[in-house]
Amino acid sequence: MRKRDDIDRLHDEINELVDDLWNVPRFVVARRGFRPNVDCIRSEDPPALHVLVELPGIDPSAIKVIAADRVLVVAGERCRPELTGRYQQMEIEYGAFQRRISLTEPVDTAGATARYERGLLTIVLPIAQKPAKRERERVTITIGASRV
Questions:
Q1: Which domain holds residue 83?
Q2: Does residue 11 lie in a domain region?
Q3: Over residues 112-126, mean pLDDT
Q4: Which DSSP category does 133 fall into?
Q5: Nearest Cα to 103, choosing from 55, 51, 65?
Q6: What are the φ and ψ backbone dihedral angles of 99, each rounded to 5 degrees?
Q7: Residue 3 forms part of a structural domain
Q8: How far apart, in Å, do the first and last CA atoms of the chain sit?
Q9: What is the domain-level CATH number for residue 110?
């Protein structure tokens, strides 16, 4: 089972490298969608993984957050405003996105929370007290209401 974890981790690292390649400015036009920036922080008291995802201009109801088998998936779409005319400058990325974040420790998905506030999605995944049985269950995490 240890070898499989190593292979999965290597697969995730390769995917991340390919995603980084597409983030190079000359390739941005060639791809569809965008790749939001992500930070992942482990806290000690209480033990948890905090995942922050930059998602400005996105309706929180259009964001899906799913935790499965040591992977967190954040997906959705940032829609281009319906404006008519000819672009003079075009820098903002629009379209579908999906980020897969490898979780370094087993987490308690039942205790996970998510909040979207001022363009920043914050997901808190408590560290599991004891290692869970290796299950392939997917858990959808509901995003809480933002405060103004």
A1: 33-144
A2: no
A3: 95
A4: P
A5: 51
A6: -115, 130
A7: no
A8: 46
A9: 2.60.40.790
Taking 70 as the threshold, does the pLDDT of residue 108 lie above it? yes
Report how far apart, in Å, the C-alpha atoms of 114 and of each of 14, 52, 64, 72, 120 are.
27, 10, 11, 12, 10
* DSSP code at position 105: S
Find, among 105, 145, 99, the residue nearest to 125 by Cα.
105
**In this predicted structure, what is the pLDDT of residue 27?**
47
For residue 26, the model assigns a pLDDT of 47
CA separation for the pair 55, 10 (Å, rounded): 27
Number of domains present in the structure of the chain = 1
According to DSSP, the β-strands at 143-144 and 113-117 are: parallel
Distance, CA of 28 to chain centre: 19
- What would the mean pLDDT of 53-60 be, rounded to a whole number? 92
Query: Does residue 53 belong to any structural domain of this protein?
Result: yes
Q: Encoding tokens for residue 99?
A: 């980020």
Is residue 16 one of the residues assigned to a domain?
A: no
Non-local (6+) Cβ contacts of 145 within 8 A are none
